[in-house]
From TrEMBL:
Family the UniProt entry places it in: Belongs to the short-chain dehydrogenases/reductases (SDR) family.
Species name: Brevibacillus brevis
Protein name per UniProt: SDR family oxidoreductase
The UniProt record lists the keyword Transit peptide: no
UniProt entry keywords in alphabetical sequence: NADP, Oxidoreductase
A Pfam family of this chain: adh_short
């Protein structure tokens, strides 16, 4: 990679929407670091993309483990000295059909650990790499399920709360950061992945569009907003 080439990092980049994001960001000229908790799967995914002449490398990162995130941030800083785009994509959906009050508390804990605390620690460790260059774009892959209006309906409680917290984090960090650093949340829609299932209407490629757009917005672009299909949506 050249010295002035921008660097993007995608968590959970080994499959689903994350894998497509790695591909699309590389096609847009980024050097993309594909982060994956499974080194074998992650390396293989990065290699497959590199074999198609895409500028992709791999770093190990389990977002449930702050030590692993810290180590990844050290590795990235040593190798590249910068991160211009950070996509918090890694996520889980482990709710069953029970209501929040009837399900095992471990389901909420596990979901919060990945979908909320994972993104929180990733931002905490990677924001300094953006702050030192006064530039950065952070995109949190959220869900419409995290909108406050969704709390009026029962079900999917752990997932909803985790994305509600992620949305709150987006807004709060946006209010705290300075310089040309922007953070936004996006609902990718219902997407045909392992999580979304085979009946979902959107392809990962279609889902990646608005995420890549937010990763590349200019200095006058939005900060601390929630998007769906390229348009602002209510929290
Ligand atoms: P998939 O289940 O297809 O992929 C999830 C990705 O997250 C995998 O790469 C997985 O890694 C990774 N991941 C899970 N836990 C961890 C962890 N602890 N550390 C590192 N990586 C982890 O999901 P999608 O691609 O569909 O979803 C991507 C994002 O989009 C999620 O945040 C999801 O909530 C959101 N979203 C998806 C929708 C959909 O319809 N698909 C709808 C709305 C939002 P591994 O392979 O190791 O398990």
């Amino acid at each position: 990679m050249s010295m002035d080439q921008k660097v993007a990092l995608v968590t959970g980049g080994n499959r689903g929407i994350g894998y497509e994001l790695v591909k699309q960001l590389a096609l847009n000229g980024f050097h993309v670091i594909l982060a994956s908790r499974d080194p074998e799967m992650g390396r293989r995914a990065a290699q497959t993309l590199a074999e198609s002449n895409l500028d992709v490398s791999f770093v190990g990162m389990d977002v449930d483990d702050p030590k692993s995130i810290r180590q990844a941030s050290i590795t990235v800083n040593e190798r590249f000295g910068r991160v211009d785009v950070l996509i918090n994509n890694a996520g889980v959906y482990v709710d069953g059909n029970e209501t929040l009050m009837n399900q095992e508390p471990s389901i909420l804990e596990k979901t919060m650990a990945t979908n909320f605390f994972g993104a929180y620690h990733v931002i905490r460790y990677f924001l300094p790499l953006m702050e030192k260059q006064g530039y950065g774009r952070i995109v949190n892959v959220s869900s419409e399920y995290g909108a406050m209006r969704e709390m009026s309906y029962p079900g999917v409680g752990a997932y909803k709360l985790s994305k509600l917290a992620l949305n709150g984090l987006t807004r709060l960090v946006a209010a705290e950061i300075a310089g040309d650093i922007k953070i936004n949340a996006v609902d990718p829609g219902w997407v045909r992945t392992d999580m979304g299932g085979p009946s979902a209407p959107k392809t990962p490629r279609q889902a990646a569009e608005s995420i890549v757009w937010l990763a590349m917005i200019g200095p006058d672009g939005p900060n601390g907003e929630f998007f769906k299909d390229g348009k602002r949506t209510d929290w």
